[in-house]
Amino acid sequence: MEDVFNIRVEDGYQEDEEIQVVAFRLGNEEYAVDILYVQEIIRLLNITRVPRSAQHIEGVVNLRGSIIPIANLHSRFDLQFSENQDDKRIIVFKFDEVQVGIIVDEVSEVLRIHQNDIEAADKVYGTLEADHIKGIAKVGERLLILLDLAKIFEAGW
Amino acid sequence: MKMDMSQYLDVFLEESKEHLGNLNEQLLNLEKNPGNLAALNEIFRAAHTLKGMSSTMGFEDLADLTHHLEDVLSDLKEGLLQPDTYVVDTLFQCLDRVQSIISQIESNGSAEYNNQDLIAILNSIKNQNYTGDIQLIEDKQKPATAQTEEPSIELDFNEYELTVMEEAACKNYQIAAIRVAVDPGSLMKSVRAFMVFKVLEEDSEVIKSIPAVTDLEDGKFDETFDVVVITKTPLPVLIDRLEHISEIRVDSSHLVNIDQLPLHRDDIDVMKSDQKTTEQVDTKRNHKIKQTVRVDIDRLDNLMNLVGELVMHKGRLGQIASNRRIVELNETIEQIDRISTDLQSVVMKVRMVPIEQVFNRFPRMVRDLAKELNKEIEFIMEGKETELDRTVIDEIGDPLIHLLRNAIDHGLESPSVRTQKGKPRIGTIILRARHEGNSVFIEVEDDGAGIQIERVKNKAVAKGIITAKEAEEMTAEQAVDLLFSPGFSTAENITDVSGRGVGLDVVKSKIESLNGEIQVDSKPGQGTKFVVKLPLTLAIIQALMVAVRDEIYAIPLSTVNETTMLSSEDIRLIQNQEVIVLRGNVLPLYRLDSLLEVPGETQSDESYVVVVHKGNKQIGLVVDRLIGQQEIVIKSLGKVLAGTPGIAGAIVAGDGNVRLILDIDTLF
Q1: What is the pLDDT of residues B318-376, one digit of tens each?
Q2: pLDDT of residue A50
Q3: Among B545, B549, B641, B647, which would you mutate to test the A interface (most chain A Cβ atoms within 10 Å of its Cβ)?
Q4: Whole-number Cα distances in Å, A82 to A105, A106, B431, B594
Q5: B495-504: pLDDT as tens digits
Q6: CATH number of B540-667: 2.130.10.10, 3.40.50.2300, 2.40.50.180, 3.40.50.720?
Q7: C-alpha dihedral sign at B635, B636, B640, B644
Q8: Residue ranges per structural domain of chain B
Q9: Sorting pLDDT into bands at 50, 70 and 90, what band is B464?
Q10: CATH number of B159-260
Q11: What is the pLDDT of residue B181?
Q12: Which of A67, A98, A157 is the closest to B650 by Cβ?
């Protein structure tokens, strides 16, 4: 159970200019989401396929008795799954009482990012994906793609 | 009292309903046994609480009524009054009024209600100058403050109306009360009422109508309604104009003298006696009252989930202990095992509510109905403590009311007929609830005439439900089942007590929607028994677990007719549709693996057909394996996946994996 850690929402913002994000890897790219939306991070569970559901829905899992849909952002963003199964995790998001999990190849860390280090998405991206992306965060040499979960939730995964 | 009380409204409504139920029950006890001091004390306490709650909430009319009610009760308690029929009937009427006020609060938040009629009666009882004339209150239109003037149109006004009338009187307008009768054959009562208002409003102002204008517009009144108008036109002229409207008659009318209107200014006296009674009650408070907490059912569901999960992990812990041979762990695991089993049953129990909640309103209903129909009934309730899931409790009330009404109206004979037949004069109706396995049985039994099979058959033939030939061949049981067929009972019943335009077919479909069953057992001359079988909870259903390649699905057993083995030579093709012939019937086959696009290949040559029904159609679902029948707890798939065609929900299987429940209606 040592891999399962809950993130307390109270620890969220300290100052206005800084946000805390959870950074994770999808394929070879690094992504990040606002920590306020993250309910918990769990190890990969048995996923039950849901026939006839949307293409990006991998299936459902049983999280302490609740049925939670698991979305597959790899297929959505057209990325390759990494080979290494051990590092895979499910990040469970909660947004307006709706819970959804996504499969990630690895959860890297929790970071504080200064607003100044975030580049608006439309400057970098010109594609459809820009809708779901808040911006690009520069952390040292790394580039993190900041997902706009509110938009993804609204679009209904 | 300008504090915002709205957040307490739900609690208020819930609790006042509880008190009201309690009041009704105890009042019935008191009626049966006038010397029952315990019942009286209970009534007093409940009425007092109700009063306190309503005045805290700022529902003045309700508080006022309960206050006067309490006055009478207090006199009863001190032996100054005797609970005779008149008094008890009045008290029942007050409870009914409280009920209507509460319903009104519930529907539109307004607690305004004119209770002067009842309060006047209560006062007259308190002053012991009532005549015991039941008519006085049975006919609501008669004011109790014995107005000896000729036509009796109920006149009680709220303060606003009184002010308007006072002003009008000062300006030499006259105030007239008119009772208008609409022809009973009139098809559009509301239109007639509208025309009355139109005529009156040509040169007068209607300040009050009973029932209220909105009710009149909806046609919600019997043959008559009352209006109070302020006018300068002479009354006879007004009446003459009204009489010119077709289908309208003026029943009675008179001018209102504003000085004679009852104005209540006795508040100070009232306060004093109130304080006294409060003290009395407080000293006797240390009576056992059940302590309860109200909890959102979602939280309980959540708790249940967590307990389920705990049980699962406990199993895993046990496995680790035995694999690694850790002996010390075993004892602890046994403890955890016991605790989690207890925990599970406690959580299950928390959701359960005694059926008492539903039953408690029935004695009152039976009593009223018996009076109305001139029948004498002993009403026995057994197994009130039987517990059912909250969700089922909420739904079961109406069907039971219908069955009881049915038993009283159609089942029991009138006292004279009973004596003729050599039966006891007083009929018996038994309402019984009991547990059996995972079901609850509720029985409504009467010792009346029983179902007359021939009459049922004749009626069914007359209604075109069956043919005369079918009727002849029918067994008694089949004939009794006719009672539940749609369109059997309605038409004749609409006007009488048990009908209200609802037939037994509606009762049956309601019970079936709760995954229950209903049966009738009737012996001619000896009585009828309706048996309703209900599941303990709605969240648990029986399902058939089937496997398709590596996936497992649950099919609700209620949709499954049968299962059979399938060998490839049985399959025929009709226009490219696979079918089999099952006992002479051609059954279309659908392969679950292709319906659900299950990945992988089927390895086994053997397969099975699950025959399911969708409406009246039968379809064969081809699956690889049958796993067996199981009781499953239904869980919702959540917002994101809700509405996926063919999937009704999910369950968590014993191994912790999620399995999906198929929805046959939307599967193909």
Answers
A1: 778 878 888 888 888 888 888 887 887 787 778 788 898 889 888 988 888 888 888 88
A2: 94
A3: B641
A4: 6, 9, 66, 30
A5: 344 444 457 8
A6: 2.40.50.180
A7: positive
A8: 6-138, 159-260, 297-350, 356-535, 540-667
A9: confident
A10: 3.30.70.1110
A11: 83
A12: A67
User: Computed over its alpha carbons, how large is the radius of gyration of chain A?
Assistant: 15
Task: Please give the DSSP secondary-structure letter assigned to residue B635.
Answer: B
Q: Do A64 and B644 touch (CB under 8 A)?
A: no
**Alpha-carbon distance B134 to B28, whole Å?**
18
In tens, the pLDDT along B405-441 reads 888 888 888 888 889 988 888 999 999 999 887 688 9
CA torsion B42→B48→B51→B56, rounded to 10°? -120
What distances in angstroms separate CA B463 from CA B21, B239, B380, B508, one per listed residue?
A: 41, 47, 36, 19
Write the pLDDT tens digit of every residue in B273-301. 444 444 444 444 444 456 777 777 778 87
Name the residue of chain A whose CA is nearest to B308's CA: A65
**Residues A52, B597: C-beta atoms closer than 8 Å:** yes
At B151 the pLDDT is 44
Q: B211 preceded by cis ω (within 30°)? A: yes
Three-state secondary structure readout of B55-114:
HHCCCHHHHHHHHHHHHHHHHHHCCCCCCCHHHHHHHHHHHHHHHHHHHHHHHHCCCCCC
Three-state DSSP class for residue B604: coil
Distance of CA B168 to the CA centre of its chain: 46
- Cβ separation B660–A50 shorter than 8 A: yes
Contact A64 B309 (CB under 8 A): yes
**CB under 8 A, 24+ apart: contacts of B508-514:** B508/B484, B510/B395, B510/B398, B510/B399, B511/B399, B513/B395, B514/B392, B514/B395, B514/B396, B514/B538
Residue that wins the pLDDT comparison between B2 and B523: B523
Look up the pTM and report it: 0.50
One-letter amino acid at B446 equals: D
Of A53, A62, A156, the CB nearest to B656: A62
B6-138: CATH homologous superfamily? HPT domain (1.20.120.160)
Q: What are phi and psi of A120, to 5 degrees?
A: -60, 145
Which CATH fold topology does B356-535 show? Heat Shock Protein 90 (3.30.565)
Round to the nearest angstrom and report the end-to-end CA distance of chain A.
29
Q: What is the pLDDT of residues B620-631, one digit of tens each?
A: 999 999 998 877
Query: Between A and B, how many CB-CB pairs are < 8 A?
Result: 76
Hey, is A31 helix, strand or coil? strand
* Predicted interface score ipTM higher than 0.90: no
Whether the CB-CB separation of B155 and B256 falls below 8 Å is answered with yes
Residue B153 pLDDT: 60
Give contacts of A154 with chain B, Cβ < 8 Å. Answer: none
Are A66 and B656 inside 8 Å of each other by CB? Answer: no
CA of A69 vs chain B CAs: smallest distance (Å): 7
